[in-house]
Amino acid sequence: MIEYFILALQLFIVVGGPLFLIHIKKRVGSYASEVGKITALSKKIDDVVEQQKRITEATEETKANIAHLAWNKKEAQIIKSSKLEKYLEEIFETVNAMYINAQKAHELEEIEIEDFPVTLGPKLSTIQMLYLPELEAENKEFINLIGKYHDIHSDLSSKKIDVEEFEKQMNKFFNLLGGTTKSISLKSQHIIEAMYGAS
Questions:
Q1: d(Cα 128, Cα 130) in Å, to the nearest integer?
Q2: Phi, psi for residue 162 in degrees, rounded to 5
Q3: 181, 92 in Cβ contact below 8 A?
Q4: DSSP state of 160
């Protein structure tokens, strides 16, 4: 009986052994294939997580840059508004002084020209060039008119012209000045509308 048992065992080892090994090999190969798939999926998930992290960082950086740009734009608007206000103040104070001076000259028939600050032209031009490039032509015209104004007063003071001629030239001058200041006012409105939107 033992012989039968040993024979059966030998038969099982000879026939069943290779079948068992084939079965084990399939299971190990299948397991290794699954492990490979899981490893590949894990790698892909890690890549996706890293990519999402970079996208989130880029999005946050973009938001910060947009906020910074918006803040810079707001600051630039505030500065430009302030400089426009200062520019217009200088223009209209000068125009007012011109009218008063012309009236005095007419009444007294001679006058010492009230000197406007020597720095007025450069001051206006500096503000205009740095902050208000849109007003370049109007600023040049205004500066030229200041020179013309001084020339007319100088001619009256030196008796090159009489009071009647002075009045004619001043009327012509103030018409030109009115046109220039109107252009400056209109252009200033356009500048404000461009900065803050039309109201």
A1: 6
A2: -95, 180
A3: yes
A4: S
Of 132, 140, 124, residue with least CA distance to 189: 132
- pTM value is 0.64
Contact 87, 128 (CB under 8 A): yes
Helix (H) or strand (E) holding 72: helix 17-108
Q: What CA–CA distance (Å, rounded) separates 43 from 120? A: 72
User: Looking at residue 115, what DSSP letter applies?
Assistant: P
CB 190 within 8 A of CB 134: yes
What single-letter amino acid sits at 51? Q
pLDDT digits (tens, 9 = 90+) for 63-107: 888 888 878 888 989 999 999 999 999 998 888 888 887 777 767
State how far the Cα of 92 lies from the Cα of 85, in Å rounded to an integer: 11
CA angle centred on 31, ends 30 and 32, rounded to 5°: 90
Give the ranges where 109-162 is alpha helix by DSSP (H): 120-131, 136-157
- Output the CA torsion sign for 49, 52, 57, 60: negative
Low-confidence ranges of the chain (pLDDT < 50): none
**29, 53, 54, 66 from 60: Cα distances, Å:** 46, 11, 10, 10
166 touches 152 (CB < 8 A): yes
